Amino acid sequence: MASTRLYPGMCDASLEIFFNEKENELMIIKGGSVMNYDSLPDSETQFLDEIIKNETDVRMILESWSLSNKDQKKMLAKCRFGGLNFSPDYKNGECQPDGIDCPLANECIGFGKVCKPINYNGNRLSNFDIKTIQLLISSMKNTVIAEELEIPLGSFETYRTKLYKNLNVNTKQELARVAIELGLV
């Protein structure tokens, strides 16, 4: 029997923000509805105001982009919470940033500040970790993955073992579950 997973916000009071690349729109799931981010009342985005207020680096970067307060909040929402996954972005006063595959990552002054690195099981995942996870859950053989990552096979196998331990997984299937949970696929 197949199980169906619902995105956050479909059947609870949580908020899920995601960027729809096809439509080039920032969207939300809240109260069982999928709608445009701009239709979200200001009362629902106060947590973004708090982040901007409390994180000086974020505030300075957003201000340097000459954005209005409303656009600063929208950019923060897109960069930090814009991935669609099964972990709510905001629920009961708690925020959970998403990993975004941003084409500007290495060029953006906000990289790692406005957007946040993915953490799982108490471990911060690097871009290399994320790329490795995505390759490991594919149908590629380990030798091909090692070549793709440009590391020797022995080093890859040692690295893979450490990665599995840090993520508390033992199998490729468990790793795929983690990748889905984090929105990496």
Automatic annotation (TrEMBL):
Superkingdom of the organism of origin: Bacteria
InterPro entries: Sig_transdc_resp-reg_C-effctor, WH-like_DNA-bd_sf
Record-annotated membrane-spanning stretches: none
GO MF annotations in UniProt: DNA binding
GO biological processes: regulation of DNA-templated transcription
Leader sequence segment: none
Protein name, UniProt field: LuxR family transcriptional regulator
Organism of derivation: Chryseobacterium oncorhynchi
